[in-house]
Amino acid sequence: KKKEKKNAAFKKTKLKVGKILKKTNTTDSTIESRKVVLITQLEEQSGSSTAVYSYRGLSLENLCSQLGHYSKNVRKNAIVGAKQILTSAPNLIEAHLRTIIPAFARLISLTDTDAATHSQLKSLLELVCTVPPMSMSPHFPLFVAHILRGLTHSHDSVRSFALTVIHLLLDTYPSLCRDSTDIFQTIVHFLAANRKTNHSTRVLLDFVASFLRIYDEDAAVASHCVEVRLRAEEGVLSHAIDLCPPSLNLDPFHFPVLTTSSAGASSSLFTSPETLLNLVQALSPLVARVALENDRNLGEHIVRVLALMRRGVDRQPNKFMLADFEERYVKACDPIVKATKVHSLKENKKVFAAISELLSSPV
Amino acid sequence: SCCRNNNLHYRITKHRHPFKMSVAALPQASGKINKFAMTERHLGFLQEMVRKHPESYKEEFLEQYEHFMQTIKLLHLQPVQHRMDVQPLLDSVTFLSGVVVFYAAEAKAFGDQMLTVLREQSTGLDPHVRMAFCKALIPLRNKNYIEPLTLLELFFELVKLEDKHLRKFILSSISSHLKVICVQKKNLKLAGKIQNFCYAKLKDSRSIVVRCAQLILIDAFRKKYFRDTKTANAISEGCFHKIPKIQVAAMKFFIGSKADEDGEEELSDDEEGGGEEEGKTLKEVMNAFRYAKKTKKREKDLEKAKKAISKKKKAKKESRSKECNLLAVQSMYDPQEFGDRLFKMLESTKVEKFEVRLFRLALLARIIGIHRLQTLQFYSWSTFPRRYVQRYLQPKQRDVTRILLYAAQACHELVPPDTVENLVRCIAYNFVTDRNSPEAITVGINAIREILNNCPFAATEELLRDLAEYKTYKNKNVSMAARALITLFRQVNPKLLHKRDRGRLTAEQTEGEDREYLDFGVPAVREFVPGAECLPEEREENGEMEIDEEEVEKSDDEDGWVNVHHGADVSEDEEGEGEEDEDEDDEDEEGEWETDDEEGAEEEEDDDDEEEDGEDEEESGEEEEEEEDEEGEKKVESKAPTQSKKLKRRVTKAEMKAEIAHVPKEKAVKVSEGRILTQEEFKKINQFQIKKALVSQKKIAREIVGTRKRTNDDDKLDEEYEEKRQRRVEGDGLPRLRDIEHFHKKMRRATKEERMESIMEGREGREDYGKRKKNGPHVGKTNRENAKKKVFSMVKNKIRGKNRQRSFRDQQTSLKNYLLRQAGHKPGN
């Protein structure tokens, strides 16, 4: 027995067939205990709590990619889903504007969209437009470019819908719209070309009114005047000129770039009298036509538009720059003048008064 | 709204042409469809209409145009468009580009907008949109709404993008523009501007721009738009660009096609194959097929014709590049400097691909060969033992035949003989040894032959005689190569050969006409126009002139001693035959030479010389007699042999030679000194020279070599030599790979696998044997089934029973048989 003990270290283990020897150089990690106690619950990952899914379990990214789907129905469902997500979590809109705007705005100029989808899309865009102008401003040019592209589209329905959307923008972001040259030019062009849309005249007039109104506000006209005296012999100014006066109500990062296309383009109603004339020329056939129709319901609208036009003319400060301004103004108003000679118009006193107000000498 | 509609309609109809009015009038009736219904969906249709009457469709055009402008604005903000929006954009671009040229102001703005977008957003745009814009710009440029150079600049900007199709398009469009400018409009000022622009772009830092400019210039040079020395030299700078691909393109331009280098001639077999479809274009052939009944044979013919036409086109292209690369090499400003720079690059130890190095070697060799440069290190570079010989002039070396070819091309008359001698020796040591394979020996001997052909003064007697020994080598390729070398030296410098190999001197040799150089660096100065002796001394009438010529020859030919030697000849001839048995030509040849060698060893040099000569003369004498019997009239032929005979007869050869050559030479001198030759006279001289060459060839053909008759191989060698001599005069006169890799006998048989492969290749596209697969409309149906589908009136007369008028007798018998059968009798009695 003693001998056996002595030889224990050198004993050769007998291998049985099918049995695997334990390895000597590994650590055995099996646990033997009665129960496992968890100190804290497994934490959820931080991101998942904020993610919002639509009823169908799609995230906003998914929906945005589905908005580009070839199938009409998939697109429609995606619009509904997006609307649902954004209503449930309005804070998402502002954070995701960068992806939302191109995805949504692209849909405006699709030709195969039906009326129901259009209305869904419209309410979706209305939702997007709840964002404050400050956060909208970086994405605004892209948004506008999409809409204006729709406005020049050859399809009626697309054009009409684009008009609705731009109307929405004019109402929601007047200050941003005012800074965009493209909007002014394209809309004047649109009105001048007399392009047909599905909208009634009344909607059109409303649109024109709100278009004119954005240039009507005081902020638009507010020009910063500084009086400086230059003493020629000394070559010194009386006092320093502050080219960027601190504005009270505007945000400090607001530097409107008035021209995006070509250098000499007119940006808005108030940059030059030329643009004013263009506008009047574009509007007068429309106004004249509506006035001739002599619809009771439209009377109010047309008076409003006429008043706005008049105010625009009054506020234009640089009329003196054009020598023949008066002449051209009358020429631009020619369709309206013709309309006044029709007998039926004279009965509608309010409208007639507004027109005569407009036609009275601007200078 | 109604009022507005009226208003609209009024505006439309105001100035419309009648057709348009009818289009516009329709919607009024149907109410809801407006006037744009037709056009807004069919841009193609609208395009047609606008083309016909641009003024009246301006409104529709403007609608599309404004939409496009808005899209451009969008593209500035967001160049990447959704894939669904791409197609409409492409459509509108194609529409506008087709139509916009009718409206000048819009065209300008349209072009400018696209230019700016392409410039600013080139990377972001969808490749298709980018391509469409580029394509749309082309018609605008053609109508001069855009400056050609502005567009060219833009194109060179766009080339930087990684867009293969766009690059291809740009290159092709520039090429076609050049064609218009240079060929159709001949606007050389603009062409020059573009040329200078391309030169400037060759120095750009971006390699892709350089490559693009290079490709344009090469293409323009090949197509003759810019075929001048300036372009060639601008391209030549590309050989030293840091990017190997540009180097290779430039070098390839100068080297030309590989087929040319290999010396293959594609045109010849093509001309045979073309046959009937010679004059037809592909379009004609296709049209003829389209309107003819389609049969299998016609289909096959069409395929054949197509193949032939494409082949022809390819060959045409090839030949064009062939002529132009020589021109390009010749028009280099400073070939010596260029060659030195190239050699420096070759010498540099920079690691580069073997192919590139080979190209460089090829170009260098070609330039040296064509311009006769003195780049002496080149020869030692490839032979100098420590550095490159181990690698380059070894039979195991990759593409060694090409390297040998380049060595041969680089050798010209003005290379010092000792330099070339080293080169030749090196090749001989490495290739022409018994331990090498026969192929290696053949290639080596061929290369040496080509080198020595270019610089004959580099040959040494000892080396040449060693090489000549290979004419008895058991492999036919080797022996033929050696014999070709001997044939060459018989013409060029027979003195170096062993006496038995020398053959007989030809007339030209005695006159020394065909030699350009008498010794190294000693050009043969001619005192007269060769062949001028055919003209009369004084200008006379044509008829007399010829008579005069013949008279001269006749007087020359007075030789009564031809017969005398005939007798002596026979005895010696018998001796020769007694020594050897003559079973086969080849063996005979070998045997003879062996014995000759032994003789040479035994006897002294001089004796041997005389004996050999004697043998030769006698044979020729025999030959001569036969000739005279056959063609007594043609005295001209006999002139040359007579001369050579005389030459060998005398001990002092040189004196004799002078005397013989004296008469015609003197006359030639007189003729060419006495007056200015006219064009007609030159023509006559040419004819005379050709005639003389033919005669001497014929004479050689009849000649007996040694004691045996001429074999086909001898003819072949002579023909080849003649051909080679012709080729040296025309083109660049450089040897070709075919000369180096010339194997008279096929190298080896193809294995069974290879044969089967080629058989299978031949079977490709052929129908299998056996039953043809049928798939016509009536296949697999019986006539009865088919009849069921026919109109009744067609088959009415074929109804069974009605169409058979049985005779009364037939009816009777069949009735009888029937009744009998019914009664239980057996039928058929």
From TrEMBL, chain A:
<protein>
    <recommendedName>
        <fullName>Pre-rRNA-processing protein Ipi1 N-terminal domain-containing protein</fullName>
    </recommendedName>
</protein>
<dbReference type="InterPro" id="IPR011989">
    <property type="entry name" value="ARM-like"/>
</dbReference>
<dbReference type="GO" id="GO:0071339">
    <property type="term" value="C:MLL1 complex"/>
</dbReference>
<dbReference type="InterPro" id="IPR016024">
    <property type="entry name" value="ARM-type_fold"/>
</dbReference>
From TrEMBL, chain B:
<feature type="region of interest" description="Disordered">
    <location>
        <begin position="708"/>
        <end position="787"/>
    </location>
</feature>
<feature type="domain" description="SDA1 C-terminal">
    <location>
        <begin position="780"/>
        <end position="822"/>
    </location>
</feature>
<feature type="region of interest" description="Disordered">
    <location>
        <begin position="800"/>
        <end position="829"/>
    </location>
</feature>
<protein>
    <recommendedName>
        <fullName>Protein SDA1</fullName>
    </recommendedName>
</protein>
<dbReference type="InterPro" id="IPR016024">
    <property type="entry name" value="ARM-type_fold"/>
</dbReference>
<keyword id="KW-0653">Protein transport</keyword>
<feature type="region of interest" description="Disordered">
    <location>
        <begin position="529"/>
        <end position="653"/>
    </location>
</feature>
<dbReference type="GO" id="GO:0000055">
    <property type="term" value="P:ribosomal large subunit export from nucleus"/>
</dbReference>
<keyword id="KW-0539">Nucleus</keyword>
<feature type="domain" description="SDA1 N-terminal">
    <location>
        <begin position="95"/>
        <end position="474"/>
    </location>
</feature>
<dbReference type="Pfam" id="PF08158">
    <property type="entry name" value="SDA1_HEAT"/>
</dbReference>
<dbReference type="InterPro" id="IPR048292">
    <property type="entry name" value="SDA1_C"/>
</dbReference>
<dbReference type="GO" id="GO:0042273">
    <property type="term" value="P:ribosomal large subunit biogenesis"/>
</dbReference>
<dbReference type="InterPro" id="IPR027312">
    <property type="entry name" value="Sda1"/>
</dbReference>
<keyword id="KW-0175">Coiled coil</keyword>
<comment type="function">
    <text>Required for 60S pre-ribosomal subunits export to the cytoplasm.</text>
</comment>
<feature type="compositionally biased region" description="Acidic residues">
    <location>
        <begin position="538"/>
        <end position="560"/>
    </location>
</feature>
<feature type="compositionally biased region" description="Basic and acidic residues">
    <location>
        <begin position="750"/>
        <end position="770"/>
    </location>
</feature>
<dbReference type="InterPro" id="IPR012977">
    <property type="entry name" value="SDA1_N"/>
</dbReference>
<dbReference type="Pfam" id="PF21638">
    <property type="entry name" value="SDA1_C"/>
</dbReference>
<feature type="compositionally biased region" description="Basic and acidic residues">
    <location>
        <begin position="722"/>
        <end position="742"/>
    </location>
</feature>
<keyword id="KW-0690">Ribosome biogenesis</keyword>
